[in-house]
Amino acid sequence: MGAELCLDAHAVTNWLLLGAAPDSTRAVDELLERGVTHVLDCRTPRQAPLPAAIRPGLVWCSAPTEDDGASRGTDWYAACVTFAERAAREENARLYVHCAAGVNRSPAAAYTILRSRGWAASAARARILTSRAEARPRYFEDAEQCLAELGLAEQERP
Hints:
Elements: E1 9-11, E2 16-20, H1 25-33, E3 38-41, E4 59-62, H2 74-88, E5 95-99, H3 105-116, H4 121-131, H5 140-150
Parallel strand pairs: 2-5, 3-4, 3-5
Antiparallel strand pairs: 1-2
Helix pairs in contact: 2-3, 3-4, 3-5
């Protein structure tokens, strides 16, 4: 049997981490070692949490969406923000946001979370793309439109 995959995660802020799916016991152990208390899973619908992730003190939320280039929709962005707000209310909480590869969906969720917490669009975009080189801004414009509809973030003026 081969070695288990390790965690592919990058810190965006002290409170927020972004990356790929923690699909092994070792990866989940690394989440816990890094102080993660909450996990937002943005992969396509699947049974969640993974058996390896059923641990005391680790709160898992599934916010499934396809990586198909279409709008995620306001309900998806609102669910991501709601879970992040829930985590933020807990002392010493640390949130890990992931999709399958940490390239499109989870960066969009992390962007939305930062924007809903008062970050300027340009600062949120730069922080995510600098923190995780693999991240792509595929859904950032979609996030902005949905945030505006939800009234969750002030829009920057050109």
